[in-house]
Design brief:
The protein is of the alpha+beta class. The protein contains 15 helices and 16 strands. α1 packs antiparallel against α5 and α5 runs parallel beside α9. The chain is elongated. The protein starts with 12 loop residues before the first helix and ends with a helix. The protein binds adenosine-5'-triphosphate and magnesium ion. Adenosine-5'-triphosphate binds next to β6, β10, β11 and α11. The site of adenosine-5'-triphosphate has 20 residues, from β6, β10, β11 and α11.
Length: 415
């Protein structure tokens, strides 16, 4: 396998199904609609929007030339693609604001380690077309409802503002002043960031840089009145809605398109790696050639959520139907069994089998292994008598039932 990629195996189905089920349910309750964009986009889309001087684009993006000579990228994130799609299909015409969600694979040439893959999955929510603080908080609520539905109890919402075209330049100058005299103590990457993208200094995870960051100026002192009012409105709504939060005055995100609100969500069991991140991106539309249009969104890392659930001792939330195991003894019974199995399945009963095994003993063992509540046994004698045997797998009690009563009896037995 290619380094940094990973398989998702059948044994992990309950985890993934829990996330998908929760995601679709929360999306439905919050009225977000599904959108799916291609995995391949032009490299220029992300260079312009996420920013050429960000880690995601500069170091982590999979870029290559197609046979036709086009420079394309495996998508590292989805917000830029959603915005591209919005503009191409004039989606604002159908709904304003437009509320969409997505899930799927994303690619970043990161250093592979626990919780960090080169192919990983995100679930995201976006609201396009409205700049009101109510929508910043609607996105935060969708993310938290998702995570709370999975039974997380220890979440921290970290939140900050990153200003706008008017106030961010002042803050940038202040940061440069602060870091100028400390440049020799920064890591190699941060020395580059100092020149290219000084805000990114605040996002470095090197211990030395984290130490220097502690005393760095905070943006809240430099916000313009519009950004300040917006941030206050967001915090007020957060408090009104009893969302626990922690202001983090040094929080910036790894993408350039954010303005005003940014936030991340952490679980205490996975300190240092965010489960979700998001913010407002009012300039993105213009950056990629649209008219000015405010928008806000967030994305969650699905592998990270599963890992945090496991670390927290949480279990998959998916509720599976009780199952019955169908056993056939002898060739004739095996041939006849599919008809009965179909009948059970069409009646909504989850039906398993291991018809490839011959003996009753081996098939009963499979039934036990799969923790089936009941088995239905069909042999030569039963075919002749037009009956089946229903066996309670816990007690071993058996009952012969006419085939006409099969579905009814199995349903009763599984209750
Ligand atoms: P980090 O600071 O942890 O690198 P990020 O800021 O690069 O995260 P975002 O672009 O905000 O991440 O992506 C949203 C979420 O996707 C993250 O909070 C995380 O849960 C998940 N994620 C990001 N990169 C990876 C990765 N390489 N492997 C697995 N999950 C990831
Ligand atoms: Mg990253």
């Amino acid at each position: 396998m290619v380094k940094g990629m990973h398989d998702i195996l059948p044994k992990d189905q309950d985890w993934w199904e829990s996330l998908f089920e929760t995601g679709w349910s929360v999306a439905g309750l919050h009225d977000f609609n599904y959108i799916e964009t291609p995995i391949l986009e032009t490299a220029a889309l992300f260079e312009a929007s996420v920013g050429a001087a960000t880690d995601i684009v500069d170091k982590e993006m999979y870029v290559f030339k197609t046979k036709g000579g086009e420079r394309v990228a495996l998508r590292p994130e989805n917000t830029a693609s959603v915005m591209r799609s919005y503009l191409e299909h004039h989606l604002g015409y159908f709904s304003s604001p437009l509320k969409v969600f997505y899930c799927g694979p994303f690619f970043r040439y990161d250093k592979p380690q626990k919780g960090r893959y080169r192919e990983f999955h995100q679930w995201g929510f976006e609201i396009l077309g409205d700049g009101d603080a109510v929508y910043d908080v609607s996105i935060i609520l969708a993310v938290l409802d998702f995570l709370w539905s999975l039974k997380f109890k220890d979440l921290t919402l970290k939140i900050n503002a990153v200003g706008c075209r008017i106030c961010r330049p002042t803050y940038r100058t202040k940061l440069k002043e602060y870091y100028r005299s400390r440049k020799s103590k920064l890591c190699k990457d941060c020395v580059k960031r100092y020149d290219n993208n000084v805000l990114r200094l605040l996002d470095c995870k090197e211990p030395g840089c984290l130490e220097i960051k502690k005393e760095a100026p905070i943006i809240l002192n430099y916000l313009c009145s519009s950004c300040n009012n917006h941030f206050r409105a967001v915090l007020e709504l957060i408090e009104d809605n009893d969302i626990p939060y922690e202001p983090d005055p040094h929080l910036v995100r790894g993408l350039d398109y954010y303005n005003k609100t940014v936030f991340e969500v952490f679980s205490s069991k996975l300190e240092g790696s965010a489960l979700a991140g998001g913010g407002r991106y009012d300039y993105l539309s213009e950056i990629i050639g649209g008219r000015p249009m405010p928008a806000v969104g967030a994305a969650m890392g699905m592998e990270r959520i599963i890992e945090a659930m496991q670390e927290s001792g949480l279990v998959p939330t998916v509720k599976r139907k009780k199952k019955v195991f169908f056993i056939a003894i002898g060739e004739e019974a095996k041939k006849a069994s599919l008809k009965f199995i179909n009948e059970l399945r069409r009646a909504g009963i989850r039906t398993l089998e291991s018809l490839g095994r011959k003996s009753l003993k081996a098939q009963l063992k499979s039934a036990d292994k799969h923790k089936a509540g009941l088995s239905v046994i069909l042999g030569q004698k039963e075919i002749f008598e037009e009956s089946v045997i229903i066996r309670d797998m816990k007690t071993g009690a058996q009952e012969t039932v006419p085939v006409g009563k099969l579905v009814e009896r199995v349903k009763k037995g599984l209750k």
